[in-house]
Design goal:
Blueprint: H1 2-16, H2 18-55, E1 61-69, H3 71-78, E2 83-88, E3 91-94, E4 101-107, E5 118-122, E6 130-134, H4 139-142, E7 148-150, H5 161-166, E8 169-170, E9 174-182, E10 204-209, E11 213-214, E12 218-225, H6 236-252, H7 256-353
Parallel strand pairs: 4-10, 6-9
Antiparallel strand pairs: 1-12, 2-12, 3-4, 5-9, 6-10, 7-9, 8-11
Length: 354
């Protein structure tokens, strides 16, 4: 009976103030709806983001090195549990005829590429000399499919042999635009990262065939966790998992920087020794040439002295011969005069006899 009376009083009160009741009911309904929406939006957004990252195999960790990564570094990373390693060569380069500074990524040819690209327009590059451009930046408003772009290659005249050997470069200089793509690495539309080239900030990214990026080392390595072991992104559990794996990677690579420095030093010392050997060889050849020059100079001096001696002897003999010739000529002249006088006497006597 008490419950019936209570409900009767409630309905009487509602009947007396229907407008207020409906207003409160609407406010409560909207509040509950907003709360339910907000409460569900977070998990839904996390699920959407994680599904997108999983579909495009977005990296979980990125490994960089000032001196680049070698095969030995990649082998160490491969031994790290629960991680797949994707070594990559990239190039930060300027575009001719514009102020664009872009990061050139390779289009990986494997079955499970990391940071897969989403095609927005056109197609992905298939052969050497083709390029796909960043669809979110102003490249899409500057270039069209079929346009030709030229990258500004730096001269390697001032680079050392080691820098030339470790340099990452593009196979071609001119590329034809074949499409526009999005990358899961760049969710926002403003920043594209920093660089040590040019003005220091990247304007966009571009994608070329993997075989078009040349080099003996890797510029970076992207590490991914298997979806079965990875925690949900943007959660404390995921952050802790990534931090733990980062510590494992740093521990695994702990000795590599020193080894790399020692390798570079050893290579430098070897080149110094080779240069010193070449320098010593050059000094030996120079000393040998100087000795040969001194010997030749001595021979020249001896030859000059012998020449002067023979020349003086020749001059003396010439003077003596000239003197003898003069005396002989005088005798001949005297004999000729005596002959002529005798001839004249003979002729006179002959005329007298007639």
């Amino acid at each position: 009976m008490k419950k019936k009376a209570l409900w009767k009083d409630i309905w009487i009160e509602i009947g007396k103030s229907k407008a207020r009741f409906l207003a409160l009911l609407a406010i409560i309904t909207l509040g509950v709806a907003f709360f339910a929406g907000i409460k569900a939006a977070g998990p839904d957004m996390l699920d959407t983001a994680n599904q997108y990252y999983e579909d495009n195999n977005l990296y979980d960790l990125k490994v960089l090195s000032t001196y680049g990564l070698e095969e030995a570094d990649i082998a160490i990373l491969d031994e790290t549990a629960d991680l797949s390693v994707h070594p990559m060569r990239t190039v930060d380069i300027e575009m001719e005829g514009s102020d664009f500074l872009v990061k050139v990524f390779p289009l990986q040819s494997g079955a499970d590429p990391v940071n897969a690209y989403a095609l927005v327009d056109g197609r992905l590059p298939e052969t050497s000399g083709e390029v796909a451009l960043d669809a979110k930046q102003n490249l899409s408003s500057t270039y069209q499919i079929g346009d030709t772009i030229t990258f500004r290659h730096e001269s390697d005249e001032d680079l050392s042999d080691e820098e030339k050997e470790n340099r990452i470069s593009l196979k071609e200089q001119e590329y034809t635009v074949v499409g526009f793509v999005d990358s899961p690495m760049y969710i926002e539309t403003i920043m594209r990262g920093s660089t040590n080239v040019g003005k220091g900030s990247l304007d966009a990214f571009v994608v070329v065939p993997e075989s078009d990026i040349l080099g003996s080392i890797y510029t970076e390595a992207y590490l991914t966790m298997a979806p079965t072991v990875a925690e949900t992104g943007y959660t404390d559990a995921y952050d802790e998992q990534v931090d733990r794996l980062a510590d494992e990677v740093e521990l695994a690579l702990n000795g590599r920087p020193l080894e790399r420095i020692n390798e570079i030093r050893a290579e430098g010392q070897r080149k110094i020794r080779d240069a010193e050997d070449e320098l010593q060889e050059g000094k030996d050849k120079l000393a040998e040439a100087e000795q040969e020059l001194q010997d030749a100079r001595q021979q020249l001096d001896d030859g000059t002295a012998l020449y002067e001696e023979n020349r003086q002897l020749f001059l003396d003999e010439i003077a003596q011969a000239e003197s003898t010739l003069t005396a002989s000529q005088a005798e001949i002249d005297a004999g000729m005069a005596e002959y002529r006088a005798g001839l004249a006497t003979y002729l006179e006597n002959k005329s007298a006899l007639r």
